[in-house]
Amino acid sequence: MTRLSLGLLGTMLACQSCQGCKPELPNVDTSEPQDSEKDDSDSAQDSPVDTDTAPPPPCEFPELEPNNNPGQATVAELEAWACGVFEAAYDFDHFQVEVPYAGWLKVDVDAAERGSSAAPFLFVESDSGLGFGADAGASSTDPLLVVPIPSSGTFTILLTDGYNGSGLDFDYQVKTSLTKAPLSWDYGMTDGTSKDAPMSMDWGDRVYGVVDDSQTVHWIELPVPEGKADVQFQVMAHRYGSPLSSTLRLFPRSDGELPDKPTELANSDPDSSSWDPILRLSAEGEESWVVSIKVTEGSGTGDLYWFVFEAIEL
Ligand SMILES: [Ca+2]
Ligand SMILES: [Ca+2]
Ligand SMILES: [Ca+2]
After folding, report:
1. Prediction pTM value
2. pLDDT on residue 284
3. Cα→Cα distances 15→20, 67, 131, 146, Å
4. Distance, CA 246 to ligand 3 centroid (Å)?
5. Average pLDDT taken over every residue of the chain
């Protein structure tokens, strides 16, 4: 079965305001006895359960079906595990969490990481209209999101299986928490909004930026370092919980001119399953390199789609 795309998820979410366009699902009874003990540690990640015999994971906030619409969301709390099962195809599970402060919000999903058959698709939306989602993490199919929320608010979490798979072994748990910034940086993108006027940056610096819509492209220029021919450009985002899937494009400047088309392009990390592009290259008589960072075609964008860009001499 084809994996859901971020674009399709957007359509599904747009649909949520109209009840009639969602499939009617049976009211699955999930009220089997739950272990009342708190599972407030990450130890479940270290000890995968036997999915042949294990019941749905005990947690502090088990889902309450029906929860296919945001208005039916199971209320959970910050810093505590919620959990559920994709019992039927097209099972959409909503949770709602009150976040009392601005800060870096982390939404951690555990499914494959603890032996589940589910490949969860995660989308989070705030009552102020911020939305962000992911269908995989950097090290497994379990999404992990870490984003800088600008204010307190109510956040609605949607989980569904990315392949419309279902069954009692399609269980998951999800925890929302506040955390610290996953990376540091030297300064933010202040200009560099066009190819004609890229932002200057120094080797070794890290710059922070946001890809707030599909038309947003960040342009950065660095001189070819003296006596050093080998360099690396890297976007750090998905690996650290950003929902951004980005593409790096390289335009080498020679005789003051930039080529119309990029000479190099990267939209993934060849050494891992993260979406973060990395380019390693050697100077071949150029004066400088102009690099652009934009969203990978078909992927999501928004105010919380952050990245840190780093340029280093090797
Ligand atoms: Ca469910
Ligand atoms: Ca559901
Ligand atoms: Ca996880």
Report:
1. 0.83
2. 81
3. 9, 15, 15, 26
4. 22
5. 86
